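Researcher: Structure for this, please.
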Amino acid sequence: MTGKKVSCPLSGQRAMRKDVFNSLIPFAGGYGVEVAATIDILNQGWRLEEVEIDMIHSYTGRNIIGFLHRGRQFFDILYTIILKILRKQS
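Model: Predicted structure, token format:
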């Protein structure tokens, strides 16, 4: 969708100028917001730079709560990508 490989599109960490932030409004919902922001930033021609930081990820377990959490993430992101594809085609 953008022609660029991004290594951590779901990190949850973003820093940007106000004009870039404003160009992303309205935001996608749920867990799709990170993927949508990354796609929009790249498609609008903004520069995206990934910076490694030392942080610990909070892992969800291999239990029903963890699976439900990851399922919700999956469907939010899938919905966001489908919307981006459909809007691009119209």
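Researcher: Any notable elements?
Model: The chain has one domain: 18-89. The chain is about 50% helix and 0% strand.
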